[in-house]
Specification:
alpha+beta, nine-stranded mixed sheet, 13 strands, globular, binds (R)-mevalonate
């Protein structure tokens, strides 16, 4: 069977959302495909964009554990996803092949998408039909265990799809524009746990300043949500630029992300910003039409980056028996 899970971008509000402020995020037409079939032991192989590795996990007396040498933080999500699926009633060993169209640590929700795919696949192979809400909670549990803290953003987007506003435990779908976007990878992974820790260290050193920045980020996200619903893509772009400045102040942009953001703005984007946890990973830019989006993606490729023109997708993960 196959579970196909969309990746995501955050249009506004990352990091501050972890501290209870609002964020706006969208599911995009880049996918993680998780294929699974019953097997005599549980074996997971992964193929992310630009990165190839595999792991072997084994059941020990204290639960599932990684037994391969080849460790990256991303693998903790895989193992915890298998553990979480077992807690939810999964009882099969499976051969799991993961193909993710985004690079790991790219800020595109690759971890949440992979966790979602593994949990849904193992439950379905065990004859269970999990509700989307259960899957959403399970993804957040895994993210919290691996990262220390997590908002509901990624778990919500990969299960519900579309454009969503998240604030604490409240989530709502936003109906309005679904503009063409360009996602561009800086070539440097930015692991979420480290980015979250960096912001938290700054918050401990300068709590008033950081809380002030987060309140501003929250205000911008509220306005982005209204602009999305009003169909005002130009305003969404302008506010994304403001949001990028605030995220830079939190220390989560990088030289390369700043370069991507500046190239995108100068070559026709209405707005551009770092997306997701930052400290590497991706930037996202928005456009009125597909044509300038394609041009900007080409310009970014010409200066050496990987760039994709993407659209939002409605609906979250989907399953098929065939894997076709
Ligand atoms: C994750 O895509 C973005 C962060 O805000 C973390 C979270 O929301 O859990 C950095």
């Amino acid at each position: 069977m196959e579970v196909k899970v969309p990746l995501k971008v955050i249009l506004s509000g990352e990091h501050a959302v972890v501290y209870g402020h609002p964020a706006v995020a969208a599911a995009i037409d880049m996918w993680t495909r998780v294929r699974a079939e019953p097997h005599d032991s549980t074996v997971i192989s992964t193929r992310y964009f630009g990165f190839e590795a595999g792991i072997r996990v084994e059941r020990r007396s204290d639960g599932w554990t990684v037994v391969s040498e080849d460790l990256l933080n991303e693998f903790s999500y895989l193992v915890e996803a298998v553990n979480e699926a077992e807690r939810m009633g999964a009882n099969v060993d499976a051969k799991i092949d993961i193909h993710c169209e985004g690079p790991p640590g790219s800020g595109l929700g690759t971890s949440a998408s992979v966790v979602c795919g593994i949990i849904v696949a193992l439950l379905k192979l065990s004859g269970l039909e999990p509700e989307r809400e259960e899957v959403r909670e399970a993804i957040r549990n895994v993210e919290k265990r691996v990262q220390g803290r997590a908002s509901w953003t990624d778990a919500t987007v990969v299960t519900m799809g579309g454009v969503v506003k998240v604030k604490g435990e409240d989530v709502s779908k936003l109906n309005g524009i679904e503009p063409p976007m360009v996602v561009c990878y800086s070539g440097e992974p930015g692991p979420t746990a480290e980015a979250l820790e960096k912001v938290e260290r700054l918050r401990r050193k300068a709590p008033d300043v950081v809380e002030g920045l987060m309140e501003r980020i929250g205000e911008v996200a509220e306005e982005v949500a209204s602009a999305v619903e009003d169909g005002n893509v130009e305003k969404v772009g302008l506010l994304m630029n403001v949001n990028h400045g605030l995220l830079s102040a939190l220390g989560v942009s990088t030289l390369r992300i700043d370069e991507i953001v500046n190239v995108a703005r100068r070559s026709g984007a209405l707005g551009a910003k770092v997306t997701g946890a930052g400290t590497g990973g991706c930037a996202v830019a928005v456009f009125e039409d597909e044509e300038p989006a394609r041009r900007v993606a080409e310009t970014l490729r010409a200066v050496g980056y990987d760039a994709w023109v993407v659209r939002t997708v409605s609906g979250g993960y989907r399953t098929s028996d065939s894997g076709a």
